[in-house]
Specification:
There is one protein chain. The relative contact order is 0.13. It contains 4 helices and 36 strands. It is globular and about 65 Å long. By secondary structure, the protein is mainly β. Strand 12 and strand 13 form a beta hairpin.
Amino acid sequence: MRTTILAAGICSLTLTGTVRAQDESPQATDVIELKTISVTANRTPTQKNKVGSKVEQITQAEIGAKSRPVLSDYLNLLPGVSVARNGGLGGTTGLFVRGLGSGYVKTLYNGIDISDPTGTQVLTHYQYLLTGGISNVDVLKGSQSTLYGSSAIAGLVNISTLGQPDSGIHHTVEAEGGSFGTVRGRYGFTAANEGSGFAGNISGLHTDGISARADGRERDGLDSLNIDLTAEHRINEAFSVFGSVLHLNSKAEFDGNGPDDPDSYERARMTGGRFGLNFDLMDGRLKNTVSAQGFKSDRESVWDGSPSLFIGTRQKIDYQGSFEATERVLLQYGLDHEKQEADDAGGGSPLGKFDLTGAWAQAVLEPVNDLVLTAGLRHDEHSEFGGHTTYRGTASYLFAITGTRLHSSYGTGFLAPSLYQLYAPSSVGNPNLQPETSRSFDIGVEQQLLGGALTADVTYFHIRVDDKIDWINDFSYPWGGYYDQTPGTTRSKGVEASFTYAATGWLDLGGSYTYTDSRKADGTRNVRIPRHAVVLSAEARPTEKWTIGADVKFVADVVDGGAKLDDYVLLNAKVAYQLTESTQIYLRGENLLNENYQTVKDYGTPGIAAFAGIKAKF
């Protein structure tokens, strides 16, 4: 059995292996399914059924089963998560977690913070993230600034690509083509032995697309290239090194000046890297990780033929330590320092920079069997607004006899103002801004039935955001307004219910329902967030070589631009045939009911579409 867990909380795993009793013959083995592990939830490997916070996971198997091209397609199927996109592939993509938008969600890719420092908000460009090579995704919900600092108000998306590479050298080749002039491909490479693991991927996508505007006829396409490399190497029992690199290069067309605008597009080049060292002392009871990372975003936005440049950088150093005081007490602590800078943003002149330094500590306690508690505290110092303190606590208790688990979390968060909000020219920026702050709470019950084949969960959540930074309309200013703190509290509350059911050895079922009530301080609803969302999925393996899968999402009661958008049902399906042990061919369809719908008012969405592909491993 090979087990790979990257340092400093950058992956999630499902571990499997074999255990053989000493008196058994080599042919007699018992396969034991080990528990799903989340590193993200507590920044230390923790069985998911002992985590107090709510964590959703997307596995490599799920990505392979659906073969969708972009990560946001998978996030959109999770309870409590929704996506709104301005048009087809490549359109600006907003990610909403528990009713709060992309600016409130931190995203890590193999430990690299890939949010763009140059925007009006610091957020991640999900429209450019392809799925090729992704092995695991954790979505950690609730305010998580105690562990992850600024921006993690609604939660954290944690993406990893190394996973558990099989021993030896392996290659993966994928190709697909279909509707809207779409072609994509991927080459993946993994290598592993007892002490080392390496994974690399090159993924590309081209589509002629659809018109971004619903009333347009001219197509707005996307060309996207993703390259990622990640590796770790154990030098000896005490020391190991790790590193990762990510490069995104994309060009996305959009309708910036009317419905038929062939001259508007965005070209984005984003590059990041992270490298570090793990060293364990006291027979592994004292663990330490030191890392450094950098990220650069270089975007050119051409609006009706007029270009604007946006260049931003981030450098960060990080230390994380833990001490296993007893088998039931784990003490964690860390320090990090980050610098953001925008050298040139829109106006053609340096925008500004800031430094952010944080220190945190957390205790993970198991006072009695099946009860796990965490308590954490963090303090950050910002070069502009000064200090801010956050805290977090979670609890998980399993009634082993009935398979019932109670889980709950309470946490606070903060969102530092962006460089644009602080320093935008013409008095638009406001260097006196304070951070947005949050308090979040959730409580739920998870129940296992039928010997663990059926797992159901119901969770209530409530998030409030204060000191919200917003645009203030004031036409006495050159640009018609400025950024400032707005009074009142933004609130988002709701219920997430989900289930997974291994109905038979050849049929798996799943589903979720999410109710979200997200409102501004004045009581009006936040836009583009479904009040009701239902997802159902099924995967059947009727014979050894055939796999049939489908998912359907029903969305109701969305408002945007002062209007209620139409409800809709999206049905996607895939049929795959295993040609050989290493080669699969498939046919998949999207929007099979040919729904005419919008997730952003006045922006189009693709109609019925079909794609054929092949995947080979050797």
